[in-house]
UniProtKB/TrEMBL annotation:
It comes from the Bacteria. InterPro entries: DUF4331 (IPR025566). This is DUF4331 domain-containing protein. It holds the Pfam family DUF4331.
């Protein structure tokens, strides 16, 4: 749930966990390197998603920061513990629409809330949605030790001297998440040469479509936003990111790592932090910041980025319950 703790309030969009986007992954299929896996996780309660929301995975394949391909996921109203989902594929100009438009490639797919995932296939696509084990690993108490967050301050002024902040305890070993997973031939994504991928959650409310959350680079929204800016950030689009947000990012990096303005800009450009889209070149092995896999320690990476390499690693290991077969995330943990 690398994007779950956005700002200090730690709250989900509009106070609704169903609208909370947690993590985004992109990697080659372990069984066939010519296929790409895209996974977007939401709702750390791992229960049904919002029936009035549109969940979207969008792909820019030519570097203009505009959506060229968009998968939209629309969920039914839950009844008797069951829920279904329709999947739409939009390409070209249709991919820019915030609504669920395009070809319906899956209809009324049963969401899985039990141990076994419901995997469906059609025309080279594989899809599954439902509760799965969360692969994200992090030492949350260690993060709180590292940053002085008293008095309503955000993630600034890391305590890097003296005793290690890390507890050695993974805060997420028994967590579940609602996962949306799709796999398809990479050729259909037409990378030129790479892909820029981002997720969005929008809510239909009172006749208006509200953009309430977004996902791209892991933990960027969490650490770079303040409580005052996160709603605007979540509602914005990647094409405007650099113009709107680079000043805030530079300012924060000056506090967390002693970066000069020029050093901060260089680090942002090297990583591709802005726009906040996950970059993936399928011709190269997936490892963040080229895509993202379940083994990538994105919190250690982000803290090293913020502190200019001064933050020691937490020493945590990836979760061992991920799968080699679709939908790749492990079976959900039992809930009491």
């Amino acid at each position: 749930m690398s994007n779950h703790f956005t700002g200090l309030s730690l709250g989900p969009p509009l106070g609704d966990q169903r609208l909370d986007l947690c993590d985004l992954y992109a990697f080659q299929s372990p069984a066939d390197a010519s296929r790409t896996v895209l996974i977007m996780n939401a709702n750390p309660n791992a229960d049904a998603l919002h029936p009035d929301a549109i969940y979207r995975l969008a792909v820019d394949n030519n570097g203009d920061l505009r959506n060229d391909i968009a998968f939209s996921f629309v969920f039914s109203t839950p009844e008797d513990g069951r829920q279904t989902v329709d999947v739409f594929l939009a390409v070209g100009d249709d991919a820019e629409s915030p609504y669920a438009v395009g070809e319906k490639i899956f209809e009324a797919v049963e969401v899985s809330f039990g141990e076994s995932a419901n995997v469906v296939q059609s025309d080279g696509y594989m899809f599954a949605a439902g509760a799965r084990s969360d692969a994200f690993f992090f030492d949350f108490d260690g993060i709180k030790n590292l940053f002085d967050t008293t008095g309503g301050r955000n993630f600034t002024a890391p305590h890097l001297g003296g005793e290690s902040p890390w507890t050695g305890v993974d805060s997420n070993t028994s967590a579940n998440v609602f996962s949306i997973a799709i796999e398809l031939p990479t050729a259909e994504l037409a990378p030129d040469p790479d892909l820029r991928i981002w997720g969005r959650c929008s809510l239909n409310r009172d006749g208006e479509l509200l953009h309430v959350d977004r996902a791209g680079h892991p933990s960027v929204s969490s650490f770079f936003n303040t409580d005052d800016t996160k709603e605007e950030y979540n509602a914005s689009e990647p094409v405007h990111d650099r113009e709107r947000w680079i000043g805030q990012f530079i300012h924060l990096m000056g506090h967390t790592g002693g970066y000069t303005d020029d050093e901060a800009i260089a680090a942002i450009d090297t990583e591709g932090t802005l726009p906040d889209m996950l970059t993936f070149d399928p011709a190269k092995p997936a490892k963040y910041p080229n895509g993202r896999t379940f083994r990538d320690d994105v919190i250690d990476y982000r803290l090293a980025f913020l502190t200019k390499g001064d933050c020691p690693p937490s020493g945590l290991a990836p979760h061992a319950d991920t799968l080699d077969v679709f939908p790749y995330l492990g079976n959900p943990h039992p809930t009491s």
